[in-house]
Write a structure and sequence with these properties.
Distance between the termini: 63 Å
Structural class: alpha/beta
Strand content: 15-25%
Oligomer: single chain
Radius of gyration: 21 Å
Number of helices: 16
Number of strands: 13
Strand order of the largest sheet: 4-5-13-10-11-12
Largest sheet: 6 strands, mixed
Length: 412
């Protein structure tokens, strides 16, 4: 790969050749892919990008760690819409607000970006089987992307994973192991199985290429804003891979001169599981927490990408905010009714945090903000119904309809 120099441990600085089957550093630290920005600047321009008809994440191939002859995975990943949310911006007291809806990806979450990269690198490594642990979205995205590419998958999920996500896994033909325990228990079992049977490792906090896929959400946001960086980007945070990838993409664009400044990140976690935000707020090392939130996709008590995530928040002079499950459910309704965007609980947590910061006066009224919705509400319809309520249910009788409207206070 002419655009890649090597991989470097973020903890000890050890250098590794950028082989397709990279995992963690010998010291246990996470690796980071280091690019040759001089080479990229000499071969890649905004005009090149503007002329491309490919709207997927692979339009940014010069900023991605794949070989020139690597066949791209079949599913259309990336190119998700960035909506202007003027009504919601006015309600929150912001100059401008955009909603990046990544729930429209093939398996309905941002995690498809990482899984598409995993499939590409697995092919480079000659692997036929990919495995991972997941709270749900990474699992379904891997299963779908791998199935389309003709690869087999072994997926480990905690038993609390929503049925909608498990249904996706089974439909995509994955071998699914539902682990009776926490996400930490699930992760450790997957790691032992991967080591025993030699499967390609898709775990995002182990495989450094996965963040490179996730960073494309940031690349897209900047291109969609015509390279004018917003003041803030809000995102929900679990194991830390998404916010770390987002920051990596922004730094890449800054390094090659596509943007002239970097946004501040807003790290939003659930109050019931916020080890990374707690570390930032206390100035102490992060400590494990219980996983007490309905936002299952970010219910990660032992974040595996803590080093990169904490670095992203600190380097960006970012903000942290923790939200209750009630605030998450309120944000789910707010996005649906103001923007027509249906996000799952973890998917709307970034917007819940943004709302809380605006109400506390921590975001200037002249700010331009992007909030990333990381997953579709169809992933978890049970919590959506809990947030929004059941429909009116009556026999087919007009008099009963009128009575039901009166009881509900509806004026037709």
């Amino acid at each position: 790969m002419k655009n890649v120099k090597h991989a470097k441990c973020v903890r000890c600085g050890r250098i590794y050749a950028a082989a397709p089957d990279l995992t963690s550093c010998a010291c246990g630290g996470i690796l980071d892919i280091v690019y040759d920005y001089d080479y990229i600047r000499s071969t890649f321009t905004k005009d090149d990008l503007a002329q491309r008809r490919d709207s997927t994440m692979w339009r940014f191939r010069e900023l991605l760690p794949v070989e020139e002859d690597t066949p791209l995975p079949p599913l259309r990943v990336g190119g998700s819409p960035l909506y202007e949310a003027d009504a919601l911006a006015q309600e929150l007291g912001l100059a401008k607000l955009y909603i990046k809806d990544d729930g429209i990806n093939p398996t309905a979450s941002l995690k498809d970006r990482a899984s598409a990269m995993a499939v590409a690198k697995a092919r480079e490594a000659g692997a036929q089987v990919i495995a991972c642990s997941s709270t749900g979205n990474a699992a379904s995205s891997l299963a779908g992307n791998a199935a389309a590419a003709g690869l087999s998958t072994y997926i480990f999920v905690p038993s609390r994973a929503p049925k909608g996500k498990v249904a996706q896994l089974m439909t995509f033909g994955a071998t699914v192991v539902s682990v009776q325990g926490s996400y930490e228990d699930t992760f450790e079992l997957s790691r032992a199985a991967i080591e025993k049977w030699g499967w390609y490792n898709r775990n995002a906090a182990i495989n450094p290429y996965l963040s490179e896929g996730k960073k494309t959400v940031g690349l897209e946001i900047m291109e969609q804003l015509n390279w004018a960086a917003p003041d803030y980007i809000a995102v929900s945070v679990g194991d830390g891979c998404t916010i770390a990838g987002l920051w990596k993409g922004l730094k890449d664009l800054h390094a090659i001169g596509f943007i002239d400044r970097l946004p501040r990140l807003i790290s939003v976690q659930a109050e019931g599981c916020c080890p990374l935000n707690r570390a930032i707020e206390t100035g102490e090392d992060w400590r494990p927490m219980e996983e007490n939130t309905l936002a299952d996709s970010i219910a990660v008590g032992v974040p595996r990408n803590a080093d990169k995530a904490l670095m992203a928040i600190r380097e960006s002079d970012g903000l942290t905010v923790n939200v209750s499950d009630q605030e998450i459910m309120a944000a789910q309704k707010l996005l649906g009714r103001r923007c027509g965007v249906f996000g799952e609980p973890a998917g709307v947590t970034g917007t819940a945090g943004l709302k809380k910061l605006c109400q506390a006066g921590r975001i200037p009224s002249d700010a331009v903000v992007v909030s990333v919705v990381t997953g579709s509400g169809l992933k978890d319809v049970a919590n959506a119904i809990a947030a929004c309520g059941e429909p009116i249910s009556i026999p087919g009788d007009m008099a009963l309809l009128e009575a039901a409207f009166r009881q509900a206070g509806i004026r037709a």
